[in-house]
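Write out this protein's structure.
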Amino acid sequence: MANSILHKAENRGHANHGWLDSYHTFSFGSYYNPQAMNFGALRVLNDDTVSGGMGFGRHPHDNMEIISIPLEGDLEHQDSMGNKAIIRKGDIQAMSAGTGIYHSEKNAHENERVKFLQIWIYPNQKNVEPRYDQLTLNLADRHNRLQQVLSPNADDEGIWIYQNAWFHMGKFDQGKSVTYNLKDTAQSGVYTFVLSGDVTIDGQKLGTRDGLGSWDISSLEITADTEAEFLLMEIPMTF
């Protein structure tokens, strides 16, 4: 029997630090909600806006897959592996923190804001050698279809991480529909996060920045009620 959980945008945790305005779908920092700790292996989904010239100072991570998806502006990344890069809208970045890394992220510009999704996923292998991956995607490949942007396989479409997870992004015209068939119907659920517009998923209506977790399913039917953009994350429900 299909199950689902709806997280409305207005019910998310919120922390405004001045330089950082952050909305938390799941418990994070000072926001604690025992009913919103994670969705399977998906631990963090933060919707962050960083003011011009500001950012996250050097800080550590270990044994976590960390994915960044810029939505607006340019984000400058530096890490203890020697990587220094700019990630922009249309890019996706992943780090396997493994045995431990330090990194910083800051707005690359003084007079423009940066908006990006910060996503943490529990890995299926611990204490791996830390790694960094970044890819520029073709935005045309998500127009009225699902573009795979992440998978468990280095030779598949998108970037890869140490987890049986698949991410797809879509930008759909009003009235267009798509069916998403799960890769692993035995183990996975799907968390859908609406970036803009209104969609209906298996009869459930969602608006901008709403999230819907669905499990015990083999597929999802998604219809764009307006022009809409969204992120689908197929995630193991046990890990």
